[in-house]
């Protein structure tokens, strides 16, 4: 046996990389998937199903690998990498779309009254300090002026009343009121979320009951001669 015969015998052990298809495959190289819409060969399928499926899988995989080797490559620290194209097949979502966040009491009121949210500047000019200060929060410009050395007494107010103590009390009441509103909004949001969860729980409970009832009748005797598992209620027959 000469060298040519040895090479031919070795070559015969492997299948060619070129595969002919009546209908070209629908390939998505990004997802490494191939969709074959060609009809099955009924004779080969009935003669040896496993061998035919292996051969079909091998040919389709070869076509996918051929497309991968056509992709542009680039060097990296990990080696030579192929640049995948954009995907053409849209995979369905595993989970449902997220639900919108429930509106707060203020958001509902603003929506009903048509109030638009306008973005205001964060810093304002303080005439007394002669510098820019935050509009809100610590060292903000809209403070209650408790550090002022003089507070004007309103016309109809008690002149003997301590205006500093009054402003501190008013500020404390506003803070408590805001905290109360915040807790109320949080409780309403939690209640809305729990209501949705309870509905899902009830649905799963009914679904489980239906599955148990179906499994009891999924035997050769349709559940008639099966031993009852205690404690279990007898299935009521539906009237036709």
TrEMBL record:
Task: Fetch the InterPro entries from UniProt.
Answer: Ribosom_reg (IPR007023)
Q: Which GO terms describe its biological process?
A: endonucleolytic cleavage in ITS1 to separate SSU-rRNA from 5.8S rRNA and LSU-rRNA from tricistronic rRNA transcript (SSU-rRNA, 5.8S rRNA, LSU-rRNA); ribosomal large subunit biogenesis; ribosomal large subunit export from nucleus
Superkingdom field: Eukaryota
Region Disordered, annotated ranges: 167-200, 217-240
- Listed Basic and acidic residues bias regions: 167-176
Q: Where does it live in the cell?
A: Nucleus
Q: Which UniProt keywords apply?
A: Nucleus, Ribosome biogenesis
State the Pfam families in the record: RRS1
- GO cellular-component terms in the record? nuclear periphery; nucleolus; nucleoplasm; preribosome, large subunit precursor
What functional role does this protein have? Involved in ribosomal large subunit assembly.
* Stated family: Belongs to the RRS1 family.
Q: What is this protein called?
A: Ribosome biogenesis regulatory protein
Species of the source: Lichtheimia ramosa
